[in-house]
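Notebook p. 47: complex prediction with glutamic acid.
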Amino acid sequence: MTSTEASPNPLLNAQQEIHKAVQALNLEPAVAAVLSEPQIFLEVSFPVKMDDGSIRVFKGYRSQHNNSLGPYKGGIRFHPEVNADEVKALSIWMSLKCAVLGLPLGGGKGGVKCNPKELSPRELEELSRAYIRSISQIIGPEKDVPAPDVYTNPQIMAWMADEFSKINNYNTFGVITGKPLEIGGSAGRSEATGRGCVFTIREACAKLNLSLKNAKVAIQGFGNAGSVAAKLLHQLGAKIIAATDSSGGAYNPEGIDPGALIEFKKQTGSVKGTPGTTNITNEELFALDCDIIVPAALENVITDAIAEKIKAKIIAEAANGPTTPEADRILQERGVLVIPDILANAGGVTVSYFEWVQNLYGYYWTEEEVNNRLEEMMVRAFNNVYQMYSDKNVSMRQAAYMVAVSRIAKAMKIRGWL
Ligand code: GLU
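Predicted complex, structure tokens below:
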């Protein structure tokens, strides 16, 4: 992807945004100092026996950013590019995300530097269990509750919950969320990130007087979040005109059936080549004549050069950190409404919170109950952020940071940390 700026460090971005929020809220500078670093950061390395009999040593991390509002909460990423600063930034965003939604949880994040696509199922299981053993002392239902993130899934959560339960000699399902339904998962969890994102898009459209019916939508990233968002937006009458993934993309200005994209990706590993579509790159997708763009993959994909070309009115960040700070400034100047990641993709952690509550209660809700509660919480959070955005004349991102930082700062103050 071409850009005139270097790929920014997500940790520096998060720290800068926190400083801005602390200043705008007139809080003491100590709030920014405390929130700029995780409270605890653990780096581990562990051996895994590969199928060919060799031993490989993997590096993993767990960042526990802030637990003033409740136990640390946040996913585990398996990706070749995982690094310490990325995991720290992602843990900061988790604290903010939980606070924007008003959840009684703090922020954490984990990662293992690996390429899961190159691992056999047995190697993946070994790696998942070994990672959990390495961090087992600092996690637990009352301490820190991991969940899925990029390239991790319910099966991996099941192995991890099982390993932690074995270490503790009793079933500890509340240690991790995003589990399969059979072992304490929640109805609605797997669709929650995409569903939550669609609720925020619906609310944003109402504010802009934009009809979702026939609105043209482009989805960058067709994993769990992107594919569910595409399906639900289509159900609301929107036209999905393009979708891309790490191997390429599919485009049809007349609209594509998301079911066909999902099916084709299941069979071939990519949406590229879906019948009835032409190929499109990620960069071309962002420049399309459309109303809504959903970036749903990784960080820093919307650069300054790309931001200049965007024609959409709304960007809903289903991914964490997809927009660089410079691109963000350009989008704001150009009047594009960006629904920031810590709001737009908070549906996942919200239903993770529901899953954790259900595990602690041992009493389970129907999918309808889960979805209704999710809708209520997403709409409330959207309106809180939108109110701040209109009152203070700041970007939606700054507004979301201000809502979150002010809640965390209050908790830290009351607890006597500041
Ligand atoms: N990994 C997801 C996120 O970035 C979900 C975290 C969770 O459910 O705890 O929000």
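Notes: The pocket of glutamic acid is lined by residues 73-75, 97, 147, 149, 177-178, 320, 345, 348-349, 352 (CB under 6 Å). The chain has a mean pLDDT of 96.
Next step: compare against the earlier run before touching the bench.
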